[in-house]
């Protein structure tokens, strides 16, 4: 079945160019010039992934990304003309799966879309093959709902990247996972090797796990090597 992509950008020329390129790769493209049109398309059409411009006339892309993530786990790629690391990190913190900095080659966007969708489909298959939850240290990770359940039964939402990171740690408890491996798990191999956003994701995951940031017990930093889920802090049930 064709991949359905929603391109949200106020520049009609960019939308047309991207949609023509996506069509060449067998993808079906829908367009929206602003946030209002985006919500309208999402309400009436099946969309597999959203390509969302950071700067829009009626609402900035970061706000729309936050709104989408509160109601849906649909993959999101942010388009931005800004190269500052802060903008990239904020987008990822709000739940975007990846970002592309303008100007870019349309085929780069196609490659990122394909990578994210392959990963999403693989995770969906894996989730159906595994039991509903993974338990650790009184916590539960829902593989279907893709959220955390605290020891007091509070449900804590996770971004796509946070879910992938925690699932990776739970698949290798007690093993040191390198930053490169975790960056690949969170966003794909296209990430800049010097990108510090993985450290931000780990910090946010620790916060959601109610860790003492100065002395984390579960997600430990192994200096010069990476991060590890400390099996000694686990209590599988």
UniProtKB/TrEMBL annotation:
A biological-process GO annotation: regulation of DNA-templated transcription
PROSITE patterns in the record: OMPR_PHOB, RESPONSE_REGULATORY
Residues annotated with 4-aspartylphosphate modification: 53
Response regulatory domain location: 4-117
Pfam families the record matches: Response_reg, Trans_reg_C
DNA-binding region listed in the record: 131-231
Predominant localisation class: cytoplasm
GO MF annotations, alphabetized: phosphorelay response regulator activity; transcription cis-regulatory region binding
Residue ranges of domain OmpR/PhoB-type in the record: 131-231
Protein name from the UniProt record: DNA-binding response regulator
Keywords linked to the UniProt accession: Cytoplasm, DNA-binding, Phosphoprotein, Transcription, Transcription regulation, Two-component regulatory system
Source species of the chain: Pandoraea aquatica
Keyword rRNA-binding (UniProt): no
Entry annotated with the keyword Transcription: yes
Cellular localisation: Cytoplasm
An annotated GO cellular component: protein-DNA complex
Lineage start: Bacteria, Pseudomonadati, Pseudomonadota, Betaproteobacteria, Burkholderiales
């Amino acid at each position: 079945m064709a991949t359905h992509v929603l391109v949200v950008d106020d520049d009609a020329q960019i939308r047309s160019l991207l949609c023509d390129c996506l069509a060449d790769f067998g993808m079906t493209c829908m367009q929206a010039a602003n946030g209002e049109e985006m919500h309208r398309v999402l309400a009436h059409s099946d969309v597999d992934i959203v390509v969302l411009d950071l700067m829009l006339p009626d609402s900035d892309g970061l706000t729309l990304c936050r709104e989408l993530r509160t109601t849906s786990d649909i993959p999101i790629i942010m388009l931005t003309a800004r190269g500052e690391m802060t903008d990239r990190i904020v987008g990822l913190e709000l739940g975007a799966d990846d970002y592309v900095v303008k100007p870019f080659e349309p085929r780069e966007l196609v490659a990122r879309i394909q990578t994210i969708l392959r990963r999403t489909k693989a995770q969906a298959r894996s989730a159906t093959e595994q039991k509903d939850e993974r338990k650790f240290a009184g916590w539960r990770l829902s593989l279907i709902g893709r959220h955390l359940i605290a020891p007091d039964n509070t449900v804590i939402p996770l971004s796509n990247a946070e879910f992938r990171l925690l699932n990776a740690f739970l698949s290798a408890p007690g093993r040191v996972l390198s930053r490169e491996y975790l960056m690949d798990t969170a966003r794909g191999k296209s990430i800049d090797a010097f990108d510090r956003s993985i450290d931000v994701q780990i910090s946010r995951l620790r916060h959601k796990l109610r860790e003492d940031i100065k002395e984390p017990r579960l997600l430990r930093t192994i200096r010069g090597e990476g991060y590890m889920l400390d099996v000694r802090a686990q209590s599988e049930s």
